[in-house]
Design brief:
The chain is of the alpha/beta class. Helices cover 44% and strands 13% of the residues. It is elongated. It binds uridine-5'-diphosphate-xylopyranose.
Length: 452
């Protein structure tokens, strides 16, 4: 089939590439000329494991191409995918201007029957707005072309996006039109071999499914962070509690890791947008409100632990803190809404200096914070320790999993570690002569520095 994918961000580029990989003829369209030129020359604008070789191979094989000329691409395509961003606007609602701009572009160029599939995360009711925008352009041209709008949300995770896309656990097709559903099933047939993964539903349910999935996952995390905060105060270890509850299959082990708060491009904006949608429909989503509030506080947790160790924020003045991990999670260079950013801002405000290292996010960190005198970007985990008083582990990259604690004890002036992901065995760290603070591990209580 011939597929046009609008938007070459995470979703668009990964989806387009995976569709080409299984044999479709895909053109990725973007208004950003530099990005399209770069892609044609094999420059991949994002770091995503496994993506680059797949883009290069499919481009070389002639199945994957890149273009800025929407009109020519629309004229050839059977399926038109909208995969542009829906950033939050001032009040936290999803900004649909990019999605609707693509819809109008499609309406201005459509000349043969096609299915328009919306992959962007969009509020309930957007399929109707996309349909109306395309119809208005067609009417203005005085042409009648058959088209259907399908809601087809994606569920890929950054850092595992290629795998998620090649091996989806479900494919949501939101449409009440049997022919459009048939087209989507043909498109996804190569991903749907071993068992039926396509779930067909109406557009609005499909749109809400995406928000509900992300909101549920964000809720699990905020719930665990809340339990961790209770554990800390009562002297329990949340890691034991996690194992204890995860063994119940109704709860499960996935996505119940307490930490420095969730970040990234999806959870924060989607929880907010769903909360706004609910409010616009006269309902106050109290669980979503709480999920957001707990997360906002959790992002200050690492700083709080450090400040407590130093007897208050003033104690951090002039200290040097090594920060391991800047990306919002491992295997990505993405720092959007990353907990590291909150920690850095709070350390700087307290007059501390930072030596930071991340395996992939250094370019992004330089773009965001380059030129600051209170930040040294280092080229290895060890380099970040040089001259540091304390260590804050923010992102659980593999490179940080098993440090030599004796070496850490020698390197760190004040011999203190704040482990924002509960990676390290507290007893081992303390045996090496370091003070250890994790998230919800009851240690600060034992040390008498909790405010409980
Ligand atoms: C998420 C959804 O998982 C994906 O299905 C959707 O399509 C887009 O949003 P992503 O933002 O890439 O994907 O990251 P994810 O792996 O879900 O992690 C989100 C955040 O939650 C990270 O900051 C991570 O550190 C945090 N997290 C995750 C926890 O704090 N604890 C956990 O147990 C799991």
């Amino acid at each position: 089939m011939r597929v046009a994918v609008f938007g070459t961000g995470y979703v668009g580029l990964v989806t387009g590439t995976c569709l080409a990989e299984v044999g479709h003829r895909v053109t990725c369209v973007d208004i950003d000329r530099d990005k399209i030129e770069g892609l044609k020359q094999g420059r991949i604008p994002i770091y995503e494991p496994g993506l680059e070789p797949m883009v290069l191979a499919n481009h070389a094989a002639g199945r994957l191409d890149f273009d800025t000329d929407a009109e020519a691409v629309v004229a050839r395509a059977d399926v038109l995918m909208i995969a542009v961003g829906t950033p939050p606007d001032e009040d936290g609602s999803a900004d649909l201007s990019h999605v609707l701009a693509v819809a109008r572009t499609i309406g201005r160029s459509l000349s043969r029957p096609a299915v328009v599939a919306n992959k962007s995360t969009v509020p309930v009711g957007t399929a109707d707005r996309v349909r109306a925008a395309i119809a208005a352009e067609l009417a203005a041209r005085g042409v009648a072309v058959e088209f259907e709008v399908v809601s087809n949300p994606e569920f890929l995770k950054e850092g595992a996006a290629v795998n998620d896309c090649m091996r989806p656990d479900r494919i949501i097709v939101g449409s009440r039109n049997p022919r459009a559903v048939e087209t989507m099933k043909r498109l996804y047939a190569p991903f749907n071999r071993s068992h039926e993964r396509v779930v067909v539903m109406d557009e609005r349910s499909a749109e809400l499914t995406k928000y509900a999935a992300n909101a549920m996952l964000a809720t699990k995390i905020s719930f665990m962070n809340e339990m961790a905060n209770i554990a800390e105060r009562v002297g329990a270890d949340i890691e034991m509690v996690r194992l204890g509850i995860g063994s119940d299959p109704r709860i499960g082990y996935h996505f119940i890791y307490p930490g420095a708060g969730y970040g990234g491009s999806c959870f924060p904006k989607d929880v907010q947008a769903l909360e706004r949608t609910a409010r616009q429909h006269g309902y106050r989503a109290r669980i979503l409100d709480a999920v957001e509030a707990v997360n906002a506080e959790q992002k200050s947790k690492m700083f709080e632990l450090l400040a407590r160790h130093y007897g208050g924020e003033a104690g951090l003045r002039g200290k040097v803190v090594a920060v391991w991990g800047l990306a919002f999670k491992p295997n990505t260079d993405d720092m959007r809404e990353a907990p590291s950013r909150t920690l850095l801002a709070q350390l700087w405000a307290a007059g501390a200096r930072v030596r930071a290292y991340d395996p992939e996010a250094m370019t992004e960190a330089r773009r965001l914070f380059g030129g600051r005198e209170d930040l040294v970007l280092c080229d290895s985990p060890e380099a970040a320790l040089a001259g540091a008083d304390a260590l804050a582990l923010v992102t659980e990259w593999k490179a940080f999993w098993s440090p030599d604690f004796a070496l850490l004890a020698r390197a760190l002036g004040d011999k203190v570690i704040v482990d924002g992901r509960n990676l390290y065995p507290p007893d081992e760290v303390e045996a090496a002569g370091l003070a250890y603070y994790g998230i919800g591990r009851g240690r600060s209580l034992r040390r008498g520095v909790t405010d409980a």
